[in-house]
Each structure stands twice: as C-alpha cells, then as structure tokens.
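Example S7 (structure tokens).
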C-alpha cells in the first residue's frame, strides 16, 4: 500500500510556495518515491513531465518540483496553451532496470490527481516509461505512438529563440559563422548542435559524459572543452542545455558571450542573476520561453493537433522572443521579468474570466 512521505523542512518549503497542490508519495513494494507539484490550473489542467533523478534529499527534490512546476505554468501561458503547470519528480537512480513496477506505481500516483495533472517524459525518463504509466492512468502524453520524443522539437524551439535573440542583438537572424558554446550534449543539446551545425554555426561543446561531447565533435566539427570551462569560452552565444542553476555568481564573473539562450530549465541560480545579466549588457532569453517546444509537442496528443500545426506553434517562439526582448528594452527591465509579466497577465485574465462566470 502507498503511503505519504514526510520531511522535516518540507512543510516550510511548501508554505512559501504558491502552488495549488503538492503531494509526496512512496510505494515500498516497487521502491517508488516521488513528488507531484501542481502550480496552477488557471488556464487548464496542469501539464509537465516526470523527472527521474538521484536527489540528495527530499527537500532538494521538493525544491526542484516546485521550481519546475512554476516554470511550466509560465511556459504554457507564454506559448498560448490552454494548460497550467505541474511537475513530477521520482527520487532514485534512473538507470534502474526495474522500470515497469516503478512507473506503474507512478501512474497510480498521477491517477490519484483525477486529471488535474497530466504527465509526460522528462530528464531520466523515456516514452517507453510512459507506456508503463499509461497502464495505470490515461493522464499521460509523450507516448511512443503519439508525439514521442520531444527533444528534437524542443531543440528547434531553442534554435528559433536563438535566431530571434540574434535578430534583436545584431539585426540579423542568420547564425552562419556565429560562435555558440553548448553546455550539455544530451538529447536536446545534441539536436540543437545538429541544427546549428546545419546552419553554419561554429560550435564548442562540453558534457560531463565525454562520449556525448566527442560525438558532437565527430559529427558537427565541434571543439570540445571541459564542462567547467564552457561558460568562459570566447563565444557569441552561450547555450545551457543541461541542468539548472548554471547562471550564478561564479559563471557571471567568467561569462564572455553576448547572448544566453538554451534548453535547460531554471538556468538562473536566483532571480537576481537575471538582473545581473541585464546589467552586464547580456541578452538573455528566459528558459521557459526558449524551451517551450517540448510542451507544445506533448500537447499535440491532448489537443488533437497535427505535425504541421505543432511546428507552426514551435516556430512562433521566434515572435514571442522578439516581443519579450523588445518590451524589456522599451520598459528598461530585465527580460526574465518582462516574460514573467506577460505570463502573469494571461493568468490574471484567466482567473478574472473564471470569477465572472
């Protein structure tokens, strides 16, 4: 039988959040331990993938779930999707071979939310894992026979955001010859590097998995540097495509790029680091704006879109990026704060419409 988890500092952490619902759950028979955070359903059911990671503590996992689910709310709002934001995290080693039992337990957890949360794959999970989830709940997307692997679509959205940032910064969105430093060559980072290479960009890459970096070097003619060196590479664009928190005090002191745009979630260590980028004169595209291609792709199954309609929405990330950067410049605020304002205005409009009914 499943039972709630407990954590000494978790209640305080949740008390400071503005989430609608957060639950921690365990299923001893399968070794499952997970968290689902629903940030907002103002625009519709909360959607967000399931991240499987070996967190150091329940508190660390909780903080990740809270931040990621909030980002999903803002991501859907800016992308013009009729969904709210949620996130699930599974605590443990994502290399486990015992996946069916574990993901079926996760499916039962998702089902307990009664449809206010819909999951899909994320870091450490795959479309095949979502098939196990589907055995226990219908509230799942990103299936192998549906929208499938979102990485190429996410990467294309980041590429479009990168083009828009180049247009804003240099007056030209042609990335031929532009120097791009890609941090992380996993699924999304690999596909982003591929698209950049095809457009003639000059790549420098880094990954904690040396084989991934070497693959990019072999296939795309990229220069490989150590993971701790990628932020200080002489590049025009820095693309964080691994885990979050990489824009921090140490990175800001070493950053040489004029533009920052990538696929990683929660790139800013703290809100003030976005302000610091603005003070340094760096053009920053907020992560939840740039990487919205994944959620747009996953929503195909929920909205009945075809491939063409989905790609049209992903390409529109270019226009939204230009809008955010232009408004930020006009109003003299950092881009991440302007993106927040636009997302929050849509959420407030939706809340107002509900109260009028």
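Recovered sequence:
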């Amino acid at each position: 039988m499943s039972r709630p988890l407990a954590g000494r500092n978790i209640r305080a952490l949740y008390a400071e959040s503005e989430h609608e619902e957060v639950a921690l759950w365990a299923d001893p028979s399968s070794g499952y331990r997970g968290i689902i955070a629903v940030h907002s359903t103002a625009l519709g059911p909360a959607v967000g993938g399931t991240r499987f990671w070996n967190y150091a503590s329940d508190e660390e996992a909780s903080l990740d779930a809270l931040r990621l689910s909030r980002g999903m709310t803002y991501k859907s709002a800016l992308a013009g999707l009729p969904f709210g934001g949620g996130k699930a995290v599974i605590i443990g080693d994502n290399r486990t071979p015992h996946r069916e039992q574990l993901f079926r337990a996760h499916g039962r957890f998702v089902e307990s939310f009664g449809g206010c949360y819909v999951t899909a794959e994320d870091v450490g999970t795959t479309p095949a894992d979502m098939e196990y989830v589907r055995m226990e709940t219908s509230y799942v997307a990103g299936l192998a026979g549906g929208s499938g692997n979102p990485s190429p679509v996410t990467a294309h959205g980041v590429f479009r955001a990168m083009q828009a940032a180049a247009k804003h910064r240099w007056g030209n969105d042609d990335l031929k010859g532009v120097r791009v430093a890609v941090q992380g060559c996993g699924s999304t980072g690999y596909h982003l590097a591929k698209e950049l290479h095809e457009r003639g960009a000059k790549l420098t890459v880094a990954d904690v998995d040396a084989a991934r970096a070497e693959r990019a070097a072999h296939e795309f003619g990229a220069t490989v540097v150590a993971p701790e060196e990628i932020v200080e590479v002489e590049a025009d664009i820095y693309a964080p495509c691994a885990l979050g928190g990489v824009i921090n005090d140490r990175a800001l002191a070493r950053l040489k790029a004029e533009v920052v745009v990538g696929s990683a979630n929660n790139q800013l260590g703290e809100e003030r680091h976005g302000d610091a980028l603005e003070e340094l004169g760096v053009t920053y595209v907020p992560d939840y704006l740039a990487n919205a291609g994944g959620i747009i792709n996953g929503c195909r199954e929920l909205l009945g879109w075809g491939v063409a309609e989905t790609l049209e929405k992903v390409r529109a990330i270019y226009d939204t990026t230009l809008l955010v950067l232009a408004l930020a410049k006009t109003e003299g605020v950092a881009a991440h704060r302007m993106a927040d304002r636009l997302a929050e205005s849509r959420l407030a409009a939706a809340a107002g419409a509900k109260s009028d009914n």
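Notes on this example. Residues 1-8 have pLDDT under 50 and may be disordered.
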